[in-house]
Amino acid sequence: MNKKENNKTVRSRLYTSVLLVLLALVAVTAATVAWFSIADRAKVKTMSLDIVTDADLRMDLDPHSTIDQYVKTLSFEQIAARIQQEKGFSMETTPLEPVTTTDYETFSYENGTTVENTSGAYLEFTLHFMAAKDMVVHLTSANSSSGAEDGTLVMSENAALPESMRIAFFTDGTIWNYDPGMGSASSTEGTAKTFGLPEASTMQINEDNAMFSLKEGVDKAVTVHIWMEGTDEACTDELRGSDYSIRLRFTGDKTDDQNK
After folding, report:
1. Per the domain annotation, does 238 fall within a domain?
2. What does pTM read for this prediction?
3. Does the residue 231 lie in any domain?
4. In a domain, 159, yes or no
5. Residue 157: how many other CB atoms lie within 10 Å
6. pLDDT tens for residues 97-107?
7. Are strands 123-131 and 114-115 parallel, antiparallel or unpaired?
8. For residues 199 and 209, what is the distance between their CA atoms, to the nearest angstrom?
9. Does residue 4 sit within a domain?
């Protein structure tokens, strides 16, 4: 492909974004190596999901038959109410706890005891996506516009805390596991792809951050897991009293090559 054709491909990309913001307070009481215990104030404070550009990508907590039935924004209250309804616990009062997983479906504590998805130790919910055009969905750290701060980022006053967080997306028999401490690299093992993201200023949409695909007008259910990885080296007593926020931005990418 020559330079002119390449520029045309870049210009023709369709970007549509979804933003997820998660805020919580972490208070640590005790720990062993690479594991810690969270006191009862480690609760989700707010969570919101927003379409931050055009209307070609939408979502909801339930499937629908047409894209106009989906929404551009899901509030913390809506997500919390759904988790309360399906899992039986309150995101506002139930603390997260360090857990680990090998298959991204079953989670366990440090002693190997299986953690039920109704315990509140980690978060699990389903998002339904629909697009007005065929697209591949990427996770991106880039901001939606100059001056905006809405790109994917895990933030904390404690620099070690973001490295302990994990956010996984499951659909079509494949897992995409976002590891904030991985940089811009990616690796694949079986049906699981683990990847990180560069800083916003150097972000590029590419295969490393590509996730699931959407067909025009077809609903896709995506299971989301958010947890603190107990086996991560950063998951120690040093996180005591730290707070953090998680912001996720999804971008739909369609190029000329996909039209051929």
Report:
1. yes
2. 0.83
3. yes
4. yes
5. 9
6. 889 999 999 99
7. unpaired
8. 13
9. no
